[in-house]
Each structure stands twice: as C-alpha cells, then as structure tokens.
Amino acid sequence: MSTATQTVTAENVIRLFPDVNTELAGSHRVPADDRDLAGYDEEQIRLMDEVCIVLDENDVPIGSASKKVCHLMTNINDGLLHRAFSVFLFDSNNRLLLQQRASEKITFPDMWTNTCCSHPLGIPGETGSELAEAVQGVRRAAQRKLDQELNIKAVEVPLDKFRFLTRIHYKAPSDGKWGEHEIDYILIIKADVDHKANPNEVQDTRYVSQDELKAMFNDDKLKFTPWFQLICNTMLFEWWENLDEGLEKYTNETQIRRM
Fold first, then answer.
1. Which of 2, 29, 52, 158 has its CA 20 to 30 A from that of 219?
2. What sign results for the dihedral spanned by CA atoms 190, 191, 197, 200?
3. Exposed e or buried b for every residue in 180-192, given b needs 16+ CB within 10 A?
4. CB count, 10 Å around CB of 130?
C-alpha cells in the first residue's frame, strides 16, 4: 500500500492530467457512452460526475476532477491524489456502527467498512486550503453523506460534535481498473441515531464492540476496505479505549500520516 508516486503540483497537474480543472467548483460531466463505466449501476455512474478536490502531497488543493478521473488506477499510478473523509460513529454504549458497501458500488463493492467514507466536493462549504477550514468542509460533507447513505439527519450529527483526529495518506487498488489514492480525514462522533440504509449504497449495517469487530476480522468469509483495515491495524482500538476520557490527546493532529 505504498503511496510512492511522482509528485503532482499546481505547476504540473494540467500537463499530467488534462481532465483536471484548476478551478475547484468546476463541472466534470462523464460522457453517457463512457466505456470505463459500461455495465455499472446507473445511479453509481451518475455519482461519478461528482467533483473531487485534487491535492498536492501536502493536502493543498490544486484543482478538481470528477470522481471517475480520481479513481482510475491509470491516474492513481501517475500520482493523482484527492481529499476524502472517514466517519466512525459510536453509540452511547461505545459500539461502532459499520456498513457493508452495496454490490452496486463501483469501487470496493460488498466490503465491510466504517460508518461512512466518502469525499468532500469541490463546492462552496466543503473545500479549504488551511487545515481548520478543510476540517469544517469535511464535517459538512460527512453530514451530507450520512444522510445520503444511511438517512441519518444532520440534527442527529451536529457539525460541532464531529471530532477531527488526523489525516492518513494511502493508496490502494480495488481491482485492475479502479482504486483509491487519498488524504483521508478521520472523524469520530458519538451519537445515538436512527438510520436506514440506502440500498444503492449500503447492503447491511451492524453495531459492534471491540471484541465483535476483532472476531469479524478473523472471519475469512468477510472482506474489508483497505482504509478501514489500515486504521484498525494502527490506531482505532487505541482511540476506542480513550473514547470517553483522553481522546483529546489524539485530536487535531497537524501532521499527515503516510501509510
């Protein structure tokens, strides 16, 4: 899962990736007859039009590109990098809400993962060059996607209840065509919520204790997203132990963790 690639900067991004727009709030329409997306679910193809935030290796926005462009392994292997977030939602019993991604998903279908993982978009309110502004942008994006994927309403997950811990930079293939290369903002929130899965996004959900999650990892029949595995193998269980007391020492980390 090495993140080693050529360095992409504001100066060379257009030369390397002609499909990148140097304006953050651009339009990136995927052609209706796009061969890369032939045979996939119609709604998931539509979501490939979404505008991701293209970054340099220091998490500075240098443009925007469609979700499709950002997730093609040909571009990832050439260094194209975008911003993402991962939400870990715990209930009042300190159980973590997991989701199993829908079979319709183009990347990492059918895999178990954290509560919600997606991308802030290149739109007003979800972007940001400075860390504090970027964190607020991913909080807004997290509210949007928790509603879209799990029907969790914003009133149940207020912006100021999302605690920002750190950022991880990782790269992982999904298959031969698609993958991820992200700087991923890690958000933790503790809330008792009502949720109902959007079946086009999520095929199953489950609340788990630490021991139950460890047992899931020992089940060879289950598959997990690479970013979730990375976070579990390095940091999650330590955070979990300090969820009620001591989590402050892990919050607002300024250094990017290179995984």
1. 2
2. negative
3. bbbbbbbbbbebe
4. 9
- Measured between alpha carbons, how far is 20 from 217 in angstroms, rounded to an integer? 38
How confident is the chain (259 residues) per 10-residue block, as mean pLDDT? 68 78 57 71 82 96 93 95 98 98 94 97 94 98 98 98 98 90 98 97 98 97 96 97 96 97
Q: What is the distance between the alpha carbons of residues 25 and 122, in angstroms, rounded to a whole number?
A: 5
Q: In 56-159, where do the E strands start and end?
A: 61-66, 82-90, 96-101, 112-113, 116-118
Model confidence over 47-74: pLDDT tens digits? 788 999 999 999 999 999 999 999 999 9
Q: Which token pair is 115?
A: 């509560």
- Say how far residue 242 (Cα) sits from the centre of its chain: 23
Query: Which residues form the catalytic set?
Result: 117, 182
Q: N- to C-terminal Cα distance for the chain? A: 7
DSSP-based three-state secondary structure for 134: helix
Q: Are 3 and 169 in contact (CB under 8 A)?
A: yes
Neighbours of 49 (CB within 10 A): 13
What secondary structure letter does DSSP report for 72? Answer: B
Are the C-beta atoms of 30 and 45 separated by less than 8 Å?
Answer: yes
Length of the chain: 259
